[in-house]
Design brief:
There is one protein chain. This protein has helices spanning about 35-50, 90-100, 110-125, 135-145; strands at about 5-15, 20-30, 55, 70, 80-85, 100-105, 130-135, 150-155, 160-165, 170, 175-180. The chain is α/β, with parallel strands linked by helices. It has one domain (about 5-180): Restriction endonuclease-like alpha-beta roll domain (Restriction endonuclease-like alpha-beta roll fold, Roll). It has a 6-stranded mixed beta sheet, with helices on both faces. It has a 5-stranded mixed beta sheet with strand order 2-1-8-9-10. The radius of gyration is 16 Å and the shape is globular.
Length: about 190
């Protein structure tokens, strides 16, 4: 018998002063049995960074046809595609051709630097790709915020990100590795 996904509910209040976007979102996340808590919380962080009423979570960890998150216009064209982790260059290239903007939230500590140095030449050709790394310390702190029912706030101002609940807050530092043209996220 296959293991089922664990369902999480999140009430997320986003205050993005850089984009003048202030909105509350009631979200349902399905955590695949093979997905870590850190990765699921990074999906929530990615949602907050790119918050939009049309932003949706992808079907699952191994789905080739969707990102971890995506936004489509009314005609079904992808405007934004978000990936997490250290995907193969081929997957990012395919996604790059399908969407206007592509965001990769890379995580994994020193593995990120090794991965990027081996893929840099090919990835630098993808002009709509933004790559930001999240440190292992920040992903661990984000995981501590996880609960089956979450009340979360995310404040974004001039490149500073605070993500938290009523009991604790985490300041997340994004390390910009590659910035798309035009810029997707404010780096400062």
């Amino acid at each position: 018998m296959a293991l089922k996904a664990t369902i999480f509910k999140a009430s997320l209040a986003v205050a993005d002063m850089s984009r003048h976007h202030y909105q509350d979102y009631n979200l349902t996340l399905a955590q695949h049995p093979s997905e870590t808590t850190e990765r699921m919380m990074l999906r929530l962080l990615a949602f907050a960074l790119c918050a939009h009423e049309d932003l949706s979570f992808g079907k699952g960890i191994s789905d080739e046809d969707e990102g971890a998150l995506y936004r489509q216009n009314l005609t079904g064209d992808y405007q934004l595609w978000v990936e997490l982790g250290l995907p193969e260059e081929k997957r990012l290239r395919r996604a790059s051709h399908k969407t206007q903007q592509l965001l990769l939230l890379a995580y994994g500590g020193t593995a990120v630097d090794k991965w990027y140095s081996s893929e840099q030449k090919a990835l630098s050709q993808l002009k709509n790709l933004t790559i930001v790394a999240v440190s292992p310390a920040d992903t661990a702190e984000l995981a501590k915020l996880c609960d089956r029912t979450m009340q979360l706030q995310c404040t974004i101002n001039e490149g500073q990100i605070w993500f938290g609940n009523a009991a604790q807050s985490v300041q997340v530092q994004l390390q910009f590795i590659q910035q798309s043209i035009p810029a997707l996220l404010a780096s400062e």
